[in-house]
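Field notebook, page 535. I keep forgetting to write these up properly, so this time I am using the form the group agreed on. The chain and the ligand, zinc ion, are recorded exactly as supplied. Prediction of the bound pose follows.
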Amino acid sequence: MSTNEKTDRNGDTSQALPKIEVYNTLSKRKEEFVTVQPGHVGMYLCGPTVYKPSHIGHMVGPVIFDTVKRYLEYSGWKVTWVVNITDVDDKLIAESALRGTTMAKLAEEMTADYLANLAALGVRSIDKMPKATEHIDNIIGFVQGLVEKGFAYASEGDVYFDVTKDSDYGRLSNRSVESMQGEGGSTVDRKRSAADFALWKKAKQGEPMWESPWGPGRPGWHIECSAMSRAILGEQFDIHGGGLDLVFPHHENEIAQSESLHGCCMARYWMHNGLMQAAGTTGKVGGRSAAQSLPEATLDAQAQAATKISKSTGAEPFKKLLERHRPETVRVLVLSTHYRSPIHFGEEPLGESARAMEAFERLFSRYERLSGKSFYVLTAKNRRDGDAAANLAGNEAELLRVKFLAAMDDDFNTAVGIATLFDFVRLVNKYIDQHGLEKKSSADVLSQLSEMMLVLRELTDTLGLFLTEPIATRIGADEKTVSKLMELVIEIRSRSRAAKDFATADLVRTKLAEAGIVVEDRADGTLWSRKKEAT
Ligand SMILES: [Zn+2]
């Protein structure tokens, strides 16, 4: 529940912050969200290894944590969000050799692809995107610190973390050192025990390399995140995120490195999102049953059982997928499931999401027709300022707003959030119908309608939904121009009909359909909207 009592829960901040609960993989339970620094959140998400164009699986984490950031900022925190770019790695070296290019050029090209996809999805709130190759000195310093403290050892030009020196090793993923096999392969002879992992790798002939106290080489993957998160967010920060498949070994190793060196906790909350899976079946997006049940003990099972999307049908480049689906459809698909559950992916679930969005967009056009105002340019308050919207107090809209906030306060349950927004849309449509607004304009009713639309704007903003007008985006014109043109076209069509020139009226309708626009004649006027996606 969202209470707003004036406590010093987050230190002696003058602003009272709401109570939010976050599921912590480390403790395996929901915990009250209390930050290291009062009022400020440091959040780190493991980013991509940029060796291939990104696919939809790479977009899940960014959409989820962008939403987490939006919601926390709306709730009064300041958030610094870091997503790293792994631009040196075995896969990059192999792929650049295959393409006959340099690792740096390949990384640059694939980073640009990744950023373009994030922008299309409305993921605009990342504050820093450090690249591993820009932090080599920092990484070497980190490894040196671990060697000096006795947690790591050099061996034939490599440096390994000695897991037997870390008594806590395995606590995130609930594994014992004995059960871990480590990387194995050709490095096994150089390690003290099989579960030890590489912090620094000796360079092979022809590979990118940097000088180090252990000879030329390059960093291991896990150490990058420990070094870069410390450099930007400090030794201790608040949220560390990533997909469930990163719990072991990546995050386990990050914890081992950082906590051994610093002697204190690295991140307070370890948040892991479910992986995207090829769909077998799916519930109706945004339906009343969208609230997911969240078994608490399924983390490992999920990670193991999941057919990761990257290994199945969804591996096509995300840009190709965007030729068939609007980016907003993908965002709705991701957020229609609670972030800890697996997301079912496929043309059918995407089609469900597209249809779900249309329910919102039909209301937006209805509102624009009645009020002359575009939903997309409404400016709602972007702070929750207590829980009561003054003008809506006591009515059904305010109850739905409270329900939405309660769901989001409960471990960012966007699934219940979106289902609640659907109820909100139904409520507003019912309100318009019951007050006969289509037949007779009334200043009071319109003003109440506008208040409700502002609440809808406020809540959809926290999810990063409906940020841009879809048709305008699609044809590359500004929304005002499109709106004016459509008014004109519809006026011409209705005049043709009035003059019984049905051939012209039908021609307009056919041509609009070819352009992907559907016209709907109603007793109270003509509505236009985008055609449904073919599914
Ligand atoms: Zn990482």
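OBSERVATIONS:
- Residues 1-14, 281-299, 301-307, 472-476 have pLDDT under 50 and may be disordered.
- Residues 46, 225, 250, 254 surround zinc ion (CB under 6 Å).
FOLLOW-UP: compare against the apo run.
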